[in-house]
Design a protein that fits this description.
mainly alpha, 218 residues, DNA-binding, Tet_transcr_reg_TetR-rel_C_sf, HTH_TetR, HTH-type_TetR-like_transc_reg, 0% strand
Amino acid sequence: MTRDAIVEAAIRVLDRDGPRVSMDAFAAEAGITKPRLYRQFIDKSDLYSAIGNRFADSAFAATGTDLTLLLQPPREAIAQALTDYATAILAHPDVFRFLAQAQAGANRDGATGQYDLSSAVAERFTKRARAVADSIPLDADGIDYLARAIVGVMIALTDLWLTDAEPESGEFVRRAGELVWGMIDAFLRGRGVEAAPDVPIFVTLAALNADQDEPGVS
């Protein structure tokens, strides 16, 4: 029994039984004893991290490619990314709830976090954001703060959204989109870029660079 197979078994349990499950349930679903499970995972935190990393990769993949935000109008690109993200979340809502509860529980009692979902996703998002900024080019100073803020807001909003008995994506995408664009817009304005939500950012930057290249424009 591999680590990946145990993670897949754990996700099946979470999908079926909800977020409040035990290591015994994970082991039983995988068809192994708990001692055998711990031969693959050092402890509970190790398994939580494996589940979280699988989930973070899935949620992050739904945000699109590096150039999505540049080639499409921001409003359209953000809405599409959030729609795909919402679809990914709704495929496994109790996996998100499980990871969020693990993180919140660790914070309440002061113990070492079993898994920090926001940090895991923010690390991935920051790398992509830096790659986009470098390709423009755009001053990337502080982009790690922007990435962490966006991810933090997204996770908090997702947690709120999933409190609905039957969560639907439309309202979530609209409200989250407003906040995400507001943060991106503020970041760009801090670097002298006034971007319109209905105009691709690369068009805005091309026009700005053309103005700066004109004689007499500094």
